[in-house]
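STRUCTURE:
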């Protein structure tokens, strides 16, 4: 059987991305019958039906799903080979798939993606925001942007920005309930719990004088959304753990105050995670460099990692 050509692979990937033969025909500047004939020729050569077709939409057959997955991988491999051999002298191009946290992705990463696209128009960027870390390799993402380190040795990471975590409360809460002077006193206070991933519920971990200490806290309020728990703290509802990125402006304005500053919490540094590869595609490397540049320049928020 004759092997598939690069143009054939690109046609099939484009067809599935656009969702119809007529849309693919317009993108390729050919007639719809010509696009239909091209697909029929592929299926005849392969000996399997790749798409279920109706008058308005297409859907992948099981064979088509396998073909699409391998076609996308082969196209990316060929583009990476081209970039490697050419010494990456050309402008970055191709599809870049990025995952980011829900709130941070919406408010910070999305505007940066817009600036990145303006600078590198040949890169097509797909940004997906989720409230939990995802399987980069299984979901075929090029990189993920996350706070804190991920326990997955199959992927590499680059720190984009340092980001400490603080214990905070509003002046109103502290006036009503007092300020804790030791970690043990936290157990008697109203604490607002941010439920994250599979962390033990209501257990806060610290480092004091080089020793690890844990405190079981209690309170009437908890949420899996960081902005919600921060809002409750601003309302005087209790003590909360938030990152430097989130609360710097409130600490500077006096709406929140730091508590027990000598007790260190695990940091929430911002990282770019990407599958382990000997040679990163130019579009991935350039995008990570762009994030570091923009955040270090203070273009997207109150913090900057000045060490870079």
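SEQUENCE:
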């Amino acid at each position: 059987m004759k092997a598939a050509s690069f143009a054939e692979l690109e046609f099939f990937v484009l067809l599935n991305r656009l969702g119809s033969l007529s849309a693919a025909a317009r993108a390729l500047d050919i007639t719809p019958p010509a696009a239909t004939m091209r697909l029929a020729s592929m299926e005849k050569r392969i000996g399997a039906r790749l798409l279920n077709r109706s008058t308005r939409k297409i859907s992948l057959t099981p064979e088509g799903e396998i073909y699409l997955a391998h076609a996308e991988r082969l196209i990316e491999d060929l583009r990476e080979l081209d970039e490697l051999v050419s010494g990456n002298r050309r402008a970055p191009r191709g599809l870049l798939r990025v995952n980011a946290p829900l709130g941070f992705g919406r408010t910070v990463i999305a505007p940066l993606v817009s600036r990145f696209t303006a600078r590198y128009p040949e890169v097509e960027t797909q940004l997906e925001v989720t409230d939990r870390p995802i399987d980069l390799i299984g979901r075929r993402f090029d990189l993920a942007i996350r706070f804190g380190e991920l326990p997955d040795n199959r992927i590499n990471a680059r720190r984009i920005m340092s980001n400490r975590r603080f214990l905070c409360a509003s002046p109103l809460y502290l006036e009503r309930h007092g300020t804790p002077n030791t970690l043990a006193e936290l157990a008697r206070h109203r604490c607002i719990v941010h439920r994250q991933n599979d962390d033990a519920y209501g257990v806060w971990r610290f480092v004091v004088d080089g020793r690890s200490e844990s405190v079981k806290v209690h309170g009437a309020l908890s949420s899996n959304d960081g902005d919600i728990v921060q809002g409750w703290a601003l309302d005087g509802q209790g003590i909360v753990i938030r990152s430097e990125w989130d609360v710097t402006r409130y600490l500077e304005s006096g709406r929140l105050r730091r508590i027990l500053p000598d007790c260190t919490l695990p940091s929430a540094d911002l990282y770019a995670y990407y599958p382990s590869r000997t040679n990163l595609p130019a579009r991935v490397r350039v995008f990570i460099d762009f994030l570091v540049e923009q955040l270090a320049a203070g273009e997207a928020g109150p913090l900057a990692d000045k060490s870079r």
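REMARK: Residues 94-163+269-296 form a domain with the D-Maltodextrin-Binding Protein; domain 2 fold (CATH 3.40.190.10).
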